[in-house]
Write a structure and sequence with these properties.
This is AB hydrolase-1 domain-containing protein. It comes from Dulcicalothrix desertica PCC 7102. Residues 28-239 form the AB hydrolase-1 domain. The protein is an alpha/beta fold and 278 residues long. The protein contains 11 helices and 8 strands.
Length: 278
């Protein structure tokens, strides 16, 4: 029988938050990725709903949540999440986040460790790699590029290919269309001043994470995504990293069964450990 999802809204200080909710038991909060909204987690939540109370908010500025005219930052999202959980009287939770959601989840756990039972970080953003600056500049250029420029690039692509230069016009145009649907993600990731973005990166703080952490990474994802996951695993004391070999991007959607199994095993292990030591 299909699980019965409940859709709810609540006014917070920064704006209206929308969330999906299903199941009963320990509280598991799912935070969506950069180019997604809470519905990304529906297949995973449905599978876990027989054992856990699952909630997936649309982050402030995403999906059906309000898009207030504010200056967005990771800290704004963290405080919005904190206010949301307090409003629902969810005192201690498991946090599961994908990409941008994982960055927010880890930042929340650093700020409020007493409120987090465990972290599952899926392809986490939020640490610098050797190609971070190049990628952010490339993403910003794609968003700012006019349709005329895309049309010209498409025209010269065959000539460029003959000269040994690859122009990924179609790929970049598809990415541009996705980016346009998520203006808040664009602002958070590459439209703010670089010093502000760097100030919220976590590589210098991950050593202070004191909650249990599992990192999930697709084996066929980009090299930068894999590098970021490895950085998290290296810097967080006691963190585990599991690779879903066939996984690429958006593991919660395309590898929902494998992600569900990993989350279930992680929470069960935490509960057994808690029972043994208490």
């Amino acid at each position: 029988m299909d699980s019965l999802f409940r859709n709810s809204r609540r006014k917070l200080s920064q704006g209206l938050i929308f969330w999906r909710e299903v199941g009963q038991g320990s509280n598991v909060i799912f935070l969506h990725g950069s180019w997604n909204e809470g519905s990304q987690w529906v297949p995973v939540m449905e599978s876990l709903s027989h054992d856990y109370h699952c909630l997936a908010p649309d982050l402030l500025g995403f999906g059906e949540s309000e898009i207030p005219d504010i200056h967005y930052s990771i800290d704004v999202q963290v405080e919005s999440l904190a206010e949301f959980l307090l409003a629902l009287k969810l005192e201690r939770v498991y946090l599961v986040g994908d990409t941008l959601g994982a960055w927010i989840a880890a930042s929340y756990a650093l700020k409020y460790p007493e409120r987090v039972l465990g972290l599952i970080l899926v392809s986490p953003e939020g640490v610098a790699t050797s190609s971070t600056d190049k990628r952010l500049k490339q993403m910003k250029n794609i968003l700012q590029r006019s349709e005329l420029v895309f049309a010209l690039l498409k025209l010269i692509r065959p000539i460029a290919k003959m000269l040994g230069k690859e122009i990924k016009v179609q790929e970049e145009w598809r990415l541009r269309l996705i980016m346009e649907q998520y203006p808040t993600a664009c602002e958070l990731l590459f439209q703010r001043q670089l010093p502000e973005v760097r100030a919220e990166l976590l590589e210098n703080r991950l050593a202070f994470l004191v909650v249990p952490v599992l990192i999930l990474q697709g084996g066929k994802d980009t090299q930068e995504a894999i590098a970021m996951s490895n950085t998290y695993a290296e810097l967080i004391p006691g963190a585990s990293i599991n690779t879903i070999a066939h996984g690429e991007q958006n593991l919660p959607h395309f590898c929902s069964s494998a992600v569900t199994e990993q989350i279930r095993d992680f929470i069960k292990t935490r509960k057994v450990s808690w029972a043994v030591f208490n």
